[in-house]
User: What shape does this take?
Amino acid sequence: MAEGLPARRSRTRGARRRLLLPPQVVQARHRFVTATLVYLRLAAAAVRANMGQPLFLAVRTVAAGLIVVVEVTAVVLLLDRFGTIGGWRAPEVVLLFGLAFASQGLALALGNRLEADHLSLLVRKGTFDQVLTRPVSPLGWLVASYVDARYLGRLLAGVGAVAWAGDRAGVAWSAGTVALVALAVVSAAAVVFAVLLIAAAFTFVSVQGSEAGSMLVYGGTYLASYPMQIYGSALRLVFVWLVPVALAIYVPALVVLGRQGPPGLPAWLAWLTAPVSAAFLAVGGLAWRGGVRRYVGAGS
Amino acid sequence: MIEAVGLRKRFRTRRGPVEAVAGIGFRVEAGEFVGYAGPNGAGKSTTVKMMSGILLPSSGRIAVDGLVPYRERKRLARRIGVVFGQRSQLWWDLPLRESFDLIGHLYRIPAADRTARLARLVEVLGLGPLLAAPVRSLSLGQRMRAELAAAVLPAPRVLFLDEPTIGLDVEAKAAVRDFLRELNRVEGTTVILTTHDLDDIALLCSRLMIIDHGRLIYDGTVEALRTAYGTTRVLVVDLADPSATVTTGPEWAGAQVVRADGHRRWIRFAREGISAADLVALVLAEHEVLDLSIVEPEIEDVIRRIYRGEALPPGTVPPVTDTPPSQDR
Assistant: This one.
């Protein structure tokens, strides 16, 4: 007698589970999906706009990649002369470089408008005000609308350097090591992006304050390109726990290369890479929100 | 639709605190077409920013379509349209059509509604041949029409316009004004038009608010203002003899010299009192004139006179309102 029975009974188990989700969750998920789609469309539009000058774009992307090649070559030549750095041979150091460049490229591809000169220009021209009149989060807009393909050149070159270095260093590429490299790149990119967010928050207060942010973005990743054992404990502490770019790059590299780190920096810390980077990204997000709130309160 | 009580905004500048908006209160009903005028630096854009949620008031209350702008910015953004005369909201390097597509997705306009509405807007504003062109290649007049279409596509309840006719030629201005008039009449969209253009106000606005030094110094109909001031014009004459005095007599019908500088005399006269031709004849009869021109009153001129306290129509100066100390925000 199917008539008097509620519809649920005749569905599959999966559907029953779905129906039991509270409406707020379903609504929130729907909102998240539509918002993400909007950002993807904005990013696609930004890419299409850049495609209008394909040759120019290609040149810039290749140039960005070449810069990485030049830097890596410089390191190799340096190590050729001096042998090792902190006991690490050339390919191992190049692996670090590759990870650093790749993560920097990823972070800047998304967050380039957060840099001080760009953001202050947007504020001065009134473009940021215009962004605030749109029914989207200003951060989402800034990231999606200004995706810069040329930084992807840096990302690709970095990954290429990692592949090259890994082969030379005798890394056995497996699903695990590849996943670790991906983890390292994404986590370090998250850290760099968080630094960009914090610097951007300071830009709302004064441009000078955010210069420190620039230093961290470029200086920090450069520092993380060398094995951490060459640095003193104070610097190590800062770049592993405070601005965890080294935790995201150096420690996973240890695991990939099958090395043991110096005392205080064991390889098993790689388990903490993702959560610590995520936490730092959350801090960045809070700083950004504070910055926007201050902007809205103080005007431009 | 819009309600402001005791709105204030204080900025901290290097020269000390500046009160850009000093206690403004007004009420705009749905469907009104309000002109918002005032000299540069008077506080117009600050007020508009507070109404659109971009700026937090220092004190006072503001509500737009029942929402508190700075608290519910995104929600309000879906219901309002903002057009900046000198800045573009469109995607510069992409064909115009794509800007409309993106706006449709941004404001979550259902596809069927969007297509129908866009078709109508394109027809009314003559955007058909422009849809495939990148926005950067459009002329100012074409771009302005496109910006209006883009701002109006999500069917906002309130439209904020900042100098939409600036720099446009006569034909483009007429097109924009016709469009806005129809929009307000047919769809009942509330329009807040910030402008320096007296014609914009005269042809479109049923109500005018004038702000100066952060205070609302006029809030009434355009008609009342015209009756009081709009009918005066100024005759500017360059006399051959810089030391000559222009004496007015009874036949000058109240025309008076308001300014003298070297050769030049500014003579203000009322339309109903004496015609320009007659006044010119009177001046030529007594003096040797090198050159002359007739100046129509600028809204800034009117504003300056209002601010100087010249007789205002009764009941049009709104009092400075303040909120009681226990106001929540």
